Amino acid sequence: TAEPGAAGAGMPRLPAILIFCWVYVRKYQSRRESEVISTITAIFALAVALISSALLPVDIFLVSYMKNQNGTFKDWADANVSRQIEDTVLYGYYTLYSIILFCVFLWIPFVYFYYEEKEEDDGNTCSQVKTAFKYTLGFITICAVLLLIGAFVPLDIPNKKNSTEWEKVKLLFEEFGSSHGLTALSFSISSLTVIGMLAAITYTAYGMSALPLNLIKGTTSAAYERLENTEDIEEVEQHLLRIKSKCRDGRPLSSRDRRTVQQLEERLRTLRRRERHLESIEKSWWTKFCEAIRPLKIVWGVFFIIVALLFTVSLFLSNLDKALHSAGFDSGFIILGTNLTNPLNMLLPVLQTVFPLDYILITTIVMYFIFTSMAGIRNMGIWFFWIRLYKIRRGKTRPQALLFLCMILLLIVLHTSYMIYSLAPQYVMYGSQKYLVQSNKTIDGQPRNVTFVSKDCDADAPEDQCIVTRTYLFLHKFWFFSAAYYFGNWAFIAVFLIGLIVSCCKGKKSVIEGEVDEDDSDMSDDELSVYYH
Question: b or e along 458-468 (b: 16 or more beta carbons within 10 Å of the residue's beta carbon)?
Fold first, then answer.
C-alpha cells in the first residue's frame, strides 16, 4: 500500500522553485548595484515564501489521504500513524515559520542596513557590519518581546455559549499543543500574519484588479509614444530658445526665467531619456513577441478578472456567514461548518471526485495570490504610509528594494492560508474526508436493516472520525487574531472594489511605465538597453 509520504509529490520541486526565484530576482535586479549577498538573501527569502505556501495543499492532502472515499480509515492509518503524520506537518510548519522569523527579524534587516551603510560610508567593512548589527538589534528585540508575550498570553476562548461545538474547539487547541515554546512561536507568526494582512489589503487586493485589466487593455504603441515624445522635445526646445533669446543683447535673465530654464532643461533631459528607451523597446524582439501574443493576453486577462470576482464573491459570502452565525467578536468570529455556501466551497467537493483536481485548484489559488501580490507591488512600488521608498522596475531595482519586496511577500504568504480558509472553510478544515453515519431503516415503525452511509466531515462528526488540518488549528489558536483577520477580509473586499474602479477608469499604460521619471534617483540609461538586448 502506498505510504502517505507519497504526498511529497504534491510539493513543488525545490530546484524548480530556486530557478524561478533566481530568474525573478535577476529580472528586476539593478545591473549596476547587484551584490552577491543581497541576491542570495532575496532568492532565499522568496524561495521560503513559495515553499511555505505549498504547506497548505500538502496539509489538506495528508488528512484526506488517510481515509477512503467510503469514510473508513485506510489499513495503515491507525491512531499512531495518524498522529505521526499530524506531528510531521506541524513540525514542517514550525520549521518554515522559524526560518521566516529568522529572515524577517535578523537576516533581511541586517543585509538591508549593511547596504544602507555601504552607500553612505565606503569605509571599512567592519564598521559597516557593526552599524548594521546595531540597527538589527531593534528587530531582534521586537521578536524577543513577541516570543515572551506569546509564551504567557492567556489562550482561553471567551465563551458566552456553553455549546458542545465550542468545547470541541477548545479540545482541538489542547491537542494542538500547550508547550510555551510552540505557543510563543505561534503568537509571533500570528503577529507577522496581521502585518501580512495589511500588506495583502494594500498590494494583493490592488494586484487582483490591476493585473487582469492591464492584460486586457495592453500598453500604448512604442511608435506612437515616440511621435508624441518628439513633439514634446521640439516644444520644450522652442520654449528654451524663446527664453534665452531675451539675453542676446547682454541683459541677464531674471531669477524667474533662470528657474524656468532650469526646469525646462531637466524636462528636456527626461524627454531625451524617454526617446532612447522608446527607441530601444521599439527595436527589441521582446516587444514584437508581446504584440504577437496580444490575443492570448486578453484571454488571460478575462480569465483572471473572472477568477478575482469569484474570489471576492466567495470571500463576501464567507464573511457574511461569520457575521450572521458566529458567536461574535469575543470568539474571533470562529464558525464550525458553513451555513451560507459560496461558489468555491461548492466547486471543491465536486472536484474531489476526480483526483487530484481539488489539490490542483488549491495550489493554483495559492500561486494566484502570490503572483497578484507581486503584480501589486510592482505597479505600486514600496511605500511607507504616504512616502514612496522604492520602485520595482525591470533591471533597475535596488538591492534594498528587492529585500523589501521579498519581506513583504513572506508576510503576505503567511496571510494566504487564512484567505484560503475564508474562501473554503469546510475544505481547509477537513479536506475531502468523510465519516460513517448509522442509518436505521424502519418498516411499520420497527427498526430493520442497520446500514452505514458516508458523509462529508463537519463539526458534528465524532472526534475520532475526522482529522482537522494543522493549518486550521494554527490559524485559530488566538481568538483576537481571528477577529482581526475577519475585519481585514472586509477591508480587502473594499480595496479590491476601489482598485477595480480606478483600474477601469485609467487609460492604457505607457510601454515604459515607471521606467523613466523625473524624480528617479536610481536611473541608468544603459540598463534598459542591456535588459532588452
Answer: ebebeeebbbb
